[in-house]
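hey so i finally got around to running the thing on that chain from the lab meeting. sorry it took forever, my laptop kept dying and i had to restart like 3 times. anyway pasting the input first so we r on the same page abt which one it is
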Amino acid sequence: MSERPQIMLVEDDESLGFLIKDTLDAHGWHVHLYASGEKGLSAFHSHTFDLCILDVMLPEKDGFDLAAEVRKYNQRIPIVFLTARNQLEDRIRGFQIGADDYVCKPFSIQEFKYRIEAILKRTVDANSSVDKSLLLKAGKTTLDVHNLLLNANGEHTRLTYKECRLLQLFFRHTGKVIERDVFLKAIWEDDGFFVARSMDVFVSKLRKYLKNDDALKIENIRGIGYILKDSSV
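ok and heres what got predicted. didnt touch it at all, straight out
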């Protein structure tokens, strides 16, 4: 791995949080420590991470709820739960949400380091060979389809799945008119009136996301569909 993997650690026990951070940082990873579920969720929406380590018992938003929010936007990122709760039903809930590991306190920090290393070797190394077709560029903007991340001339936005799918179609057909039916059937698998109105709302949001890149403009072709124009080409 040529670049340092980025790890989000959400742990409200200050001493344990710093111990884990120091241990993993010393191993060559970059750990971002947050003390509450809300702060962790805010960080997730504004940064790109390779792995999430979440305490279950957190203030404001517990680890299970935080993990569920993360899974709405990213189905691939590894999640490791830390908890003093060792009940079977808690472990089952964690894995149902999509956990890659569930570590009960107290634990060996050295063993924990090797668990994290094994997960990162499996996931980060695999992601480093992701098809370049999942990194799309138009104007001064890059769309990272794999991580649902848009970089519009330095302005980073975490996208929902449908927002990313819409932009993916635009980026793959820059300068070409795309009929509304194509969007509706490819993304919503429907062309009803209320779904069409929903798409209009999504397109309005995409325009806001792209406003930092003056080379790109989504135009409405009345009665037909939309076109993404790129003045840089």
